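Reviewer 2 asked us to include a model.

Predict the structure of this chain.
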Amino acid sequence: MGFYVSGCGKKAQPVQEKPPVTETQTQPQDTSGRVPTEEVREEPTPSGFQKIYFDFDRYAIRDDAKSALEQNARVLKADPNMRILIEGHCDERGTVEYNLALGERRAAAARQYLMDLGIDGSRISTVSYGKERPVAFGHDEASWQQNRRAEFVNK
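Predicted model (structure tokens):
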């Protein structure tokens, strides 16, 4: 007894060519959360004050902020009756409570730096707005960097 098996033939699969491999060199990524200063450099406000910027999740005064604080101290020294408010701001990441506390630490760090430059602390008030008053509304590092700041307002 013999069996005969028949069936449908397989369809030929099209051959897929792999694209040629090209090598690209990549630059190491900066993970500090800092955008180069020249991208966020601010002109002084009409009162002569300059904003300063902070690294992600930090309140330490950066080296690039020291010259702005020195300029702000010169403005204050030129008018001994001037009083200012330092507003601490954060980017959108983190809870409201966390960012309010971080914004306060940023404002306090700027206040202390001005006091170290000879400005009487009684002339300087601080407030934190946390993430509630952004100046940039994107959801990327460039926007976040602009929002991590301290602003100086003549009272």
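Confidence is low (pLDDT under 50) at residues 19-31. Strands lie at 52-53, 84-89, 124-130, 149-154. We have added this to the supplementary material.
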